[in-house]
Amino acid sequence: MFGSRKDNSVDPALEQVGTIIGPGAVLDGPLTTKDSTRIDGTVKGNVTISGALIVGGEGKITGTVSAVNAYIAGEVTGNISAPAGKVEISDTGKVIGDVTCKGIIIDENAVFQGKCDMVGVEKSSAEIAKERAASDKEGSSENKEGESKDNESKDGESKDNESKDGESKDGESKENTEEKK
Known about the structure:
Strand content: 25-35%
Number of helices: 3
């Protein structure tokens, strides 16, 4: 059934972790690695990862984070930058800061306090929707103007038909019509 089993599998690119900061470990200062990294301890400083970053449920980072992809199950206080990849905040994750990425996934019950800038996308669906709405609006206003002009010309024709020599369309004069009343 739907939602009966949560899929906890991690993307295969994230499974090949080369650096691990274990639970209980505290690193004061910046952390820079060339391979994928898992943090289950605490890092107080900027984190720069050339591969993927996994912040485990007990992991905490205070500082700016830069990685190809980031999976956050713990806590990050600082901006996250993954302009070529995606950022995923799991249901236990907490991010306080701005996120810059190509794609983002935020699970239900996750905490995200900041703004997200999507980069590397030619046009967002919101921009496309705005353009469609604008073109629809222009098209409908042109149709309304065209209808108004048609109605004006029709009204003008009926007025012209009535006013020619005091006769209506059927050829009777206004005077004859009034006498019948």
